[in-house]
Amino acid sequence: MTYSLHPGAEHDIAKALDFYSEQAGSVVAERFLEEFERVAKLLVEHPYLGTPATKGRRTFPLRVFPYSVVYQNLESSIRILIVRHQHRKPGYAAGRR
Question: What domains are there in the chain, each with its CATH number?
């Protein structure tokens, strides 16, 4: 099993990396990316690990950073739709497929 990123999720990650790079430095930005990749690999291995949400989606939080990964479990992969800051509006990017 593998994972793929919705273009919007790629944008979400890029915005978070820019923020952490500007506000805390490249080491923290790199740590964010490592934590995201750790969670993505974990979800590939255990696709039902996240909390069920609407429309067949599941949500799983990053451990160190205040972000959650919203994804769908497909037959042979998971599709990461949103990488959302936990303090944004709950409906952020809800229309992504």
Answer: 2-85 (3.30.2310.20)
